[in-house]
Amino acid sequence: MSPKPLPCVAAIEPYRGGESTIPGIPHPIKLSSNENPLGASPRAIEAYRGGGDTLARYPEGSSRRLRAAIAARYGLEEARILCSAGSDEAIQLMGRAYLAPGDEVIQSQYGFLMYRLMAQACGASVLAGPDRDFTVDVDAMLALVGPRTKMVFLANPNNPTGTYIPGDALRRLHAGLPNDVLLVLDAAYAEYVMHSDYEDGALLASRHDNVLMTRTFSKIHGLAGLRLGWTYGAAEIIEALHRVRGPFNVSGPAQAAGIAAINDLAFEAESRTQNAQELARLTQGLRALGLDAIPSVANFVLVSFGQHSAASANRALRAQGLIVRDVSSYGLTNHLRISIGLPAEIDAVLAALSAHLRAAA
């Protein structure tokens, strides 16, 4: 008899990222993973290539220079920053450090799937508060808090809906939690938000001992292939995460690229501007076709197909070499998520959907 995994692990449905290939189409347009269509900062690429001379050496284990760069950029305390192989690794570390079988994790109805998978791997159960108009309902989440609650996850802006809650709602959520419950604020898309009432969670994490904020280099910085993220919070929590992370979890070239990326403010601003323009154009174009585009502040749009079929629309898009995200794993069975791409790519999506809807009429 072969070794058997733990029952909680055997029950996990593995996470599947956005597809990138279509059989028979050599160069499809990928709009399924919320990547930066402008690529990465030229300065980050140069720094990464420069790291080739050090490949035989282990990286500095605490990512000290990268943490210093992050702290300087955002006015944070370096000692309260942990760097990781993407924010996904940080989420896994939180589970190792703070969850045990029988514990409960709370998230929103359409919260990022990685929260649920991490909790399952730890033997914890997940409770989801129903959203209101595809937006997190703070009261619904607080109503689920009980004696077994150990962790609450909030993606803000949320993936896959693209919606956000303002700073006052964020603070109300925290105020309603017991002091021994860890609130994790996932701000992967923070750099795209252009609303004055938005808060990424850094201030809340600075002031309270039970709040963590996670960030990523995969989105606006265009470093998804390097797997690089960071977390900010109370020194005691960060120390606990350090105890369960691998000793060399972030490669040297990734650290170098991250330092260059976070200091390239011009590339970040260009990426934000490009995204805002194409986000507005895609949203308007979808609504002109009679589709319900959920208002988004991120770098993607969730589309509801109403009386039409999202599955058939997805097939039509793929036939034209366009890959978008099937979000049925979130319970969104008649929706697609479309990442913001270059102008020509947005044109191609709108043209393909227009032709498909005309043919289906």
CATH class wording of the largest domain: Alpha Beta
Distance between the termini: 56 Å
Main sheet: strands, sense, barrel: 7 strands, mixed
Tell me the number of strands: 13
User: Could you say how many structural domains there are in total?
Assistant: 2
Give the proportion of residues in helices.
25-40%
Supply database-style keywords.
globular, 7-stranded mixed sheet, 4-stranded antiparallel sheet, Aspartate Aminotransferase, domain 2, 2 domains, 15% strand, 13 helices, alpha/beta, 361 residues, 13 strands
Description of the structure:
The chain is of the alpha/beta class. The chain folds into two domains: 18-39 and 266-360, Aspartate Aminotransferase, domain 1; 42-263, Aspartate Aminotransferase, domain 2 (3-Layer(aba) Sandwich). 39% of the residues lie in helices and 15% in strands. It contains 13 helices and 13 strands. The chain has helices spanning 7-10, 42-50, 64-74, 86-98, 113-121, 138-142, 167-175, 202-207, 235-244, 252-262, 265-288, 310-319, 343-360, and strands spanning 29-30, 81-84, 104-108, 125-129, 149-155, 182-186, 211-216, 229-233, 292-293, 300-304, 322-323, 325-326, 335-339. The strands form three sheets. A seven-stranded mixed beta sheet has the order 2-8-7-6-5-3-4. A four-stranded antiparallel beta sheet has the order 9-10-13-12. A two-stranded parallel sheet has the order 1-11. Helix 2 (42-50) packs antiparallel against helix 10 (252-262), helix 4 packs across helix 9 (235-244) and helix 11 runs parallel beside helix 13 (343-360). The chain is globular, with a radius of gyration of 21 Å. The model has no long low-confidence stretch (mean pLDDT 96).
